[in-house]
Amino acid sequence: MAWSGGFGGAPFPTTSSQQNAASGLPFAGIPSEMRAGVERLVATEPDHGRSDVAFDPVEADHRPLTLRRLMARHRPVLVVAGLLVVIEALTLQAGPVLTQVGIDRGMDKGSWPTVLTVGVLFLVAVALTALAGWGRTVLTGRIAANMMYDLRLKVFAHLQRLSLDYYTDEKAGVIMTRMTSDIENLQQLLQDGLVQFAVQGLTMLVVTVLLFNYNVELALITVLVVVPALTALSLWFRTASDRAFGRVRDALAGVLSDLSESLAGVRLVTGFNRQPRNVVRHRNVVGAYREANDRTARLTAIYGPSSELLGIVGQAVVLLVGGTMVRDGTLSVGELTAFVLYLSAFFVPIQQLVQLYNTYQQGQASMAKLRQLLATEPSVAEAPDAVVLPPIVGEVVLEGVSFGYVPAAPVLHDVDLRIAPGESVCFVGPTGAGKSTVAKLITRFYDPTDGRVLIDGHDLRGVTLHSLRSQLGVVPQEPFLFAGSMRDNLAFGRPDATDAEVLEAVRLVGLDELVERLPEGLGTEVHERGVSLSSGERQLLALGRAFLARPRVLVLDEATSNLDLQSETKVEAALDVLLEGRTAILVAHRLSTAMRADRIAVVDGGRVVEVGAHPDLVALGGRYAEMYAAWAAHAGTAAP
Ligand SMILES: Nc1ncnc2c1ncn2[C@@H]1O[C@H](COP(=O)(O)OP(=O)(O)O)[C@@H](O)[C@H]1O
Ligand SMILES: [Mg+2]
Fold first, then answer.
1. Is 16 contained in some domain?
2. In whole numbers, what is the pLDDT of the chain averaged over residues?
């Protein structure tokens, strides 16, 4: 259960082909003439590990996540990007001014040097615009990529920190959305959105000033005729699209939840012939997503052309009024041309800003979701004054422990139990009695509502999680395999274990035959979804994991329930070796397993109703004696 800190990660696991080569087996890997090339490639492969990101179970940083805080680290680059934006916005608007000068002072007066100068200046302005645009795109792209890197690591580290109850309450698909679409929305906002906001806002300002500068009357007409209509249209679009994009987000979360559930349950789906129903259900959630997207498209389809139409009407009015002014000689042709050109430049930012507002809204909504996730405190938190649990002897005490997953429904009631160092206690009882819950409290996956759980006299709430779990070994009811080799999976809790140690664990749990049979031995790849191991073999592997971690206290929750009788005999012999001198908390429904424990605790309805050694409990003639008699009759063996 011990996890290694930091994101540096485990060293590259040796590949199976390397191991084959080392053991003299046929090696069908990299041909020798290509090896040098491959090594060069590996050497240039970037290492994304960064030493400043580490996993800390008690995070000191409790300030809420905001855009400002995300950007704070990149302020100097942002300032440069901002300057480039200003240059871009100014040079971009040089065109119409130069056109006006070219017409009025050059062409009208037949002064070709002026036309030439204006033309060259125009080229320079265009070049500057392009250069500034390139520079700020590169810079903001880099900032956005870095911010996303930080944010992803931050969120992932936080997910690692959260307690089990979070994962029971929150759908996996929803958590996936946080890491996919929410972070992508933010990326879009950061990469392009905010800068475009600045570019367009500034452009609008510059153009407005220029419009008034050219002709106050025409500018006023524009402002009074076109702007109110455009504003009303934009406000409507903003509100409507806000709602529409909210629906898109919800629908996408629905799609992902449904997908991840179908993937996780693929065996049951196949087994129960649920594929047709699943397809129908997925069709519904995807349908909702399609509707939502369709609605945003329809809104945009109304807004885009309508605002364009407004712009053209505005231009017509300006041409009409401006044309009269030119006829009367109060306005030059060049000025009217510049004005009309600026007028179109005036509408673009408005449209763009409204569209950007959506990006901004989505980014903010995603930010709020991520902020909420990051603000979720682990329910099983490490106390600020937690001490490192010294090497333990292994006394486990439950003292008046009551617990409920939800406060309204208590699962354990006032459990008292002392387990001596080196003693093994097996919990038996009907399904749902609370056996696994006791195991989860001892490993501090949850904290008791009332009472205390003590190890060697230390309240579990007062010791650091790392020091506690590095001395506990857990074999859960449903063993999980990680993508990687057999060896990686076995040495999960102790990546530094030697090959000899791994092989010893393999032998102890009786997996040696399997490992010999596997094509690449310990280097064979296994993974959770690939049904490469039977559930019994998975349990053996999980046991091997616990063996290797060499904990002082072992918690086995029905860890042998999926084994056939032959494997079980093997494992039980191995357990005798493993449990020797260790404190063990077992949960078993097979009484043959229970009988081997020093004491048996019968759990019923969340209470420990009987505790004692097997013969004593049989002699007592209570619940256990009843269970034992039933089991013995069923197994066809006489009670001893
Ligand atoms: N994560 C959970 N949230 C809410 N209730 C739970 C949760 N896990 C278990 N329970 C309930 O707690 C009771 C005891 O469960 P458990 O300890 O797993 O029983 P068992 O003795 O079979 O191992 C059961 O009624 C079960 O439904
Ligand atoms: Mg259970």
1. no
2. 83
388 falls within a domain: no
**Alpha carbon of 506 to ligand 1 centroid (Å):** 32
Domain count, the chain: 2
Q: Are residues 269 and 408 in the same domain?
A: no
Name the pairing type of β-strands 450-455 and 412-419.
Answer: unpaired
Ligand nearest to the CA of 168: 1
Question: Is 22 part of any domain?
Answer: no
Residue 478 C-alpha to ligand 1 middle, in angstroms? 14
Kindly state whether residue 568 falls inside one of the protein's structural domains: yes
Question: Tens digits of per-residue pLDDT, 358-400?
Answer: 788 788 888 888 888 888 888 888 888 899 999 999 999 999 9
User: Coil, strand or helix: which one is 475?
Assistant: strand
Picking from 551, 554, 623, 553, the residue whose alpha carbon sits closest to that of residue 591 is: 623
Residue whose CA is closest, atom 19 of ligand 1? 432
Report the percent of the chain where pLDDT is more than 90: 23
In a shared domain, residues 199 and 338: yes
Give the structural domain span for 85. 67-375
335, 442: one domain: no
The residue whose C-alpha atom lies closest to atom 13 belonging to ligand 1 is 432
Residue nearest to atom 7 of ligand 1 (CA): 405
Domain identity same for 402 and 335:
no
Helix (H) or strand (E) holding 32: helix 32-44
Residue 236 Cβ contacting ligand 1 at under 6 Å = no
Q: Is the CB of 590 under 6 A from ligand 1?
A: no
* The pLDDT of residue 27: 45
227/284 same-domain check? yes
Distance CA 292, CA 281 (A): 17
Q: How far is CA 253 from CA 58, 249, 353, in A?
A: 30, 6, 27
The Å distance, Cα 585 to ligand 1 centre, comes to 17
The 10s digit of each residue's pLDDT in 217-267 is: 888 888 888 888 888 988 898 888 888 888 888 888 888 888 888 888 888
Which residues are paired to 610 by β-bridges? 602
User: Could you tell me the pTM of the whole model?
Assistant: 0.72
The DSSP code for 587 is E
| Closest atom, ligand 1, to C-alpha of 433 | 21
| Residue 99, both tokens | 């056109």
- pLDDT tens for residues 547-579? 888 889 999 988 877 777 777 777 777 778 778
If one counts every other C-beta atom within 10 angstroms of the C-beta of residue 283, the result is 11
Judge whether residue 23 has pLDDT over 50. Answer: no
Q: Which CATH number fits the domain that encloses residue 334?
A: 1.20.1560.10
The protein residue whose alpha carbon is closest to atom 20 in ligand 1 is 432
Ligand 1 centroid–CA 20 distance in Å is: 46
Residue 434 Cα to ligand 1 midpoint, Å, equals 6
